[in-house]
Write a structure and sequence with these properties.
Number of strands of chain B: 10
Number of helices of chain B: 9
Distance between the termini of chain B: 35 Å
Low-confidence stretches of chain A: none
CATH class of chain A: Alpha Beta
Number of strands of chain A: 7
Order of helices and strands of chain B: EEEHEHEHEHEHEHEHEHH
Strand content of chain B: 15-25%
CATH superfamily of chain A: Beta-grasp domain
Strand content of chain A: 35-45%
Number of helices of chain A: 1
Distance between the termini of chain A: 39 Å
Largest sheet of chain B: 5 strands, parallel
Oligomer: heterodimer
Structural class of chain A: mainly beta
Shape of chain A: globular
Shape of chain B: globular
Structural class of chain B: alpha/beta
CATH architecture of chain A: Roll
Mean pLDDT of chain A: 94
Strand order of the largest sheet of chain A: 2-1-7-4-5
Low-confidence stretches of chain B: 1-7
Chain lengths: ~70, ~260
């Protein structure tokens, strides 16, 4: 299935939880936040929160800023 | 005098019930690298650093992250909404920031124009209301208009942060009269945010009675950022001390420092 991660279409095998996605991308869950179809996903729900075809996921972190 | 007044516990900065001994907040943008950034924050003696929220780089997920250099356990991270032009963008960004870091203290900054980066006060007021309803503690970047500042304070913002001059301009305090008016009416801390260029600008802000100063470019774009960070630390302390000391009155003519009585 195709999922838009930070605006880019990427193909993944279903089923895919947020935790699975972070593992595939190699991102540490402690340093980021995830939004799924404009809704925040709580860190505690990463293992159970499933993603589906055409979903939009934003993964953000803190960078330098003023 | 051995200890300065600013060293006394009673003279700390209190924002939303949190106590800070430093009155200088520094940004973390525009540095050569995160190592220099961390060293500058340290040299500035800052306890709060502003940070931005952005997409992670998916092509290099092992790239160093800010949290690896500036420890969120040691510094209070103040997530900002820099780059947001609508209330919705700002609220969305800060919800993500809260989830990433679990902090409710935030810096709201809703811009109205790409060239001046002047705040859009209509959107700022709207966003502040939304954020406060969601339990955020909002430090708000705003214009130096005392009426707007009062509206934001009445709404429940925990700190009012008027600009001294446009973001990144380094022009210093352009309207000291308005900054002074905002300080006099405010019951929450007032911090000059944006526009400071050098140490004297920071000292002037503090002498006016500001509770603190927030800056980024003045340190990051100095030829020697670490030395400037230290200069800013000293300027904020000096300005605060001068404010507490109460300056002498100004006179049009000279007044001799040596007594005239007993002249030979």
């Amino acid at each position: 299935m195709e999922i838009f991660v930070n605006g880019e279409a990427q193909a993944f095998d279903a089923p895919l939880s947020v935790a699975d996605l972070l593992n595939r991308l190699g991102l540490p869950r402690t340093k980021i936040a995830v939004e799924h179809n404009l809704e925040i996903v709580a860190k505690s729900a990463y293992d159970t929160h499933e993603l589906g075809e055409g979903d939009r996921v934003e993964i953000v972190h803190f960078i330098g800023g003023g | 005098m051995s200890a300065s007044k600013t060293d006394k516990p009673g003279d700390g900065l209190v924002i939303a019930g949190r106590h800070f001994s430093s009155r200088l907040i520094v940004g973390t943008g525009k540095y050569k690298d995160y190592a220099e950034n961390a060293a500058a924050a340290e040299a500035a003696g800052a306890e709060i650093v502003t940070v931005a929220v952005r997409r992670v780089n998916l092509t290099d997920t092992q790239a160093p992250m800010l949290v690896d250099y500036i420890d969120p356990k040691k510094f209070t991270y103040l997530p900002n909404t820099a780059g947001c032009f609508t209330g919705e963008d700002a609220v969305r960004t800060l919800r993500l920031a809260r989830e990433a870091g679990d902090w409710s203290l935030v810096k709201l900054e809703v811009l109205g124009d790409k060239k001046t980066l002047y705040p859009n006060m209509i959107e700022t007021l709207r966003s502040a209301e939304l954020l406060i309803k969601e339990g955020f503690e909002v430090m708000v970047y705003c214009s130096d208009d005392p009426i707007m500042a009062k509206e934001l304070e009445d709404m429940g913002c925990c700190a009012i942060m008027p600009l001294a001059a446009p973001i990144g301009s380094g022009l210093g305090i352009q309207n000291p009269v308005n900054i002074r008016l905002i300080i006099e009416q405010a019951k929450v801390p007032v911090l000059v945010d944006a526009g400071v260029g050098t140490a004297s600008d920071a000292a002037i802000a503090m002498e006016l009675g500001c509770d603190g100063v927030l800056m980024n470019t003045a340190i990051a774009e100095a030829k020697n950022p670490l030395l400037m960070a230290e200069a800013m630390k000293n300027a904020v302390i000096a300005g605060r001390q001068a404010y507490l000391a109460g300056r002498m009155g100004k006179r049009l003519y000279a007044d001799p420092s040596s007594p005239l009585a007993g002249l030979i």
